């Protein structure tokens, strides 16, 4: 894995003001119409934020992981779909940044991404593998001019709105299902055949239906590092940690509305403490636990990727770390629903009803996506297998 990006010349947060405003202003319309949050993404492009994790020497902002985490949280506090699109894009960018392995093609691509602010979608899911990220059916096939592939992707993150797609595939037709690589292809050079409609319960603005995708491309577009290595060091921890920030931001939005409701009740009866205030206090403690979980896990990962000591980075490939980072996903995905449910009970009918200052329906529906983005049952099964041979505390 390459060294972490150099320090950003300016805090990313200072560049996000227009995007945050766009996310907040359009969140309900995006959700209601299941449409892409184009206003927010355009604002992110204009600020250079889509290339923020690209190193400065390649034209990016050289943002840190902490910068990405903070930005994801703030976007998600206003619009979870916008925060998720930002997070998913940055997971793809980080995969390339961390695993270039000297590739000239990918180095040039990062320069292009930073200059053009290209949006990268993800095609890691596949019909027939049961949601297993580490298994592929579709394979890379050699041609006389390069390689080709065809994949039935059950979901592609904001696929119709992406500039490029990063796809996981078997290394070759004869390769084992777990012997995978990643291939980056511009959407303009792919065939994308939609599979079904997009009308989900929550995270409606992510616009991530399934597609059958086909592409012919150069061999240089096959990333040189095995997908298993990329998963351990970047894809899984980046996903679980940035998703946790999405869910923390979503929970914070619900908490904010509950707090506003309790304060409004208190103003109606000066000198008295509303009955709902005790519930709010208990919910504040739950939010503190949630924040501490995410903060601690983020600090552990940042220490590993920023380290120049190989042994520190190798921790990311251990069974112990796999269990810990999986537990972060499990705990965060449960916490967001707990917080949103509690906020709904505090706000009562005004929280249940859409269109009020205290509505939490969108946050609750978005929060329920957390347990099925890489299904919790699958992660629990993985941890169960790991714990048969791993001793906790190691």
Summary, kept brief:
The chain has 394 residues and is of the alpha+beta class.
Word description of this protein:
The protein has 394 residues and is an alpha+beta fold. The chain has 3 domains: 12-118, Butyryl-Coa Dehydrogenase, subunit A, domain 1; 122-221, Butyryl-CoA Dehydrogenase, subunit A, domain 2; 227-387, Up-down Bundle (Butyryl-CoA Dehydrogenase, subunit A, domain 3). It is built from 12 helices and 7 strands. The chain has helices spanning 17-33, 38-47, 65-78, 80-98, 104-116, 227-268, 276-306, 310-314, 319-347, 349-352, 361-367, 376-387; strands at residues 120-123, 141-142, 147-153, 164-170, 180-186, 190-195, 210-217. The strands form 2 sheets. Strands 2-3-7-6 form a 4-stranded antiparallel sheet, with no helix packed on it. A hairpin with a 4-residue loop joins strand 2 and strand 3. Helix 7 (276-306) packs antiparallel against helix 9 (319-347), helix 9 runs antiparallel to helix 11 (361-367) and helix 9 (319-347) runs antiparallel to helix 12 (376-387). The chain starts with 16 loop residues before the first helix and ends in a 7-residue tail after the last helix.
List the helices and strands and how they pair.
Layout: H1 17-33, H2 38-47, H3 65-78, H4 80-98, H5 104-116, E1 120-123, E2 141-142, E3 147-153, E4 164-170, E5 180-186, E6 190-195, E7 210-217, H6 227-268, H7 276-306, H8 310-314, H9 319-347, H10 349-352, H11 361-367, H12 376-387
Parallel strand pairs: 1-4
Antiparallel strand pairs: 2-3, 3-7, 4-5, 6-7
Helix pairs in contact: 1-2, 1-3, 3-4, 3-6, 4-6, 6-7, 6-9, 6-11, 7-9, 9-11, 9-12
């Amino acid at each position: 894995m390459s060294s972490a990006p150099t320090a950003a010349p300016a805090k990313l947060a200072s560049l996000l003001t227009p995007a945050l405003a766009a996310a907040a202003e359009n969140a309900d319309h995006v959700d209601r119409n299941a449409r892409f949050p184009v206003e927010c993404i355009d604002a992110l492009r204009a600020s250079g934020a889509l290339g923020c994790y690209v190193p400065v020497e390649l034209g990016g902002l050289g943002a840190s992981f902490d910068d990405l985490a903070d930005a994801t949280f703030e976007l998600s506090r206003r619009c979870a779909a916008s925060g998720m699109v930002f997070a998913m894009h940055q997971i793809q960018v980080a995969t390339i940044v961390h695993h270039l392995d000297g590739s000239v093609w990918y180095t040039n691509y990062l320069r292009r991404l930073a200059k053009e602010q290209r949006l990268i979608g993800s095609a890691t899911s596949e019909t027939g593998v049961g949601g297993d990220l580490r298994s592929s059916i579709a394979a890379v096939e050699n041609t006389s001019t390069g390689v080709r592939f065809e994949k039935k992707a059950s979901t592609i993150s904001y696929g119709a709105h992406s500039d490029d797609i990063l796809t996981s595939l078997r290394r070759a037709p004869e390769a084992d299902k777990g012997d995978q690589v990643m291939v980056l292809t511009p959407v303009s050079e792919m065939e994308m055949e939609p599979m079904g409609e997009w009308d989900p319960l929550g995270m409606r603005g992510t616009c991530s239906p399934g597609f059958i995708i086909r592409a012919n491309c150069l061999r240089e577009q096959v990333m040189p590092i095995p997908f298993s290595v990329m998963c351990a060091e970047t894809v899984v921890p980046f996903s679980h940690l940035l998703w946790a920030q999405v869910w923390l931001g979503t929970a914070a939005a619900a908490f904010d509305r509950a707090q506003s409701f309790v304060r409004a009740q208190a103003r109606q009866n000066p000198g008295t403490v509303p009955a709902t205030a005790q519930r709010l206090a208990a919910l504040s403690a739950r939010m503190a636990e949630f924040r501490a979980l995410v903060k601690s896990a983020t600090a552990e990962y940042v220490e590993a990727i920023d380290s120049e000591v190989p042994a520190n980075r190798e921790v990311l490939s251990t069974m112990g770390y796999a269990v810990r980072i999986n537990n972060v996903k499990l705990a965060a995905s449960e916490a967001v629903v707990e917080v949103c449910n509690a906020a709904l009970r505090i706000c009562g009918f005004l929280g249940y009803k859409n269109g009020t200052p205290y509505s939490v329906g969108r946050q609750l529906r978005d929060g329920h996506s957390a347990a099925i983005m890489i299904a919790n049952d699958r992660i629990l099964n993985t941890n169960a297998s790991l714990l048969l041979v791993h001793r906790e505390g190691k």
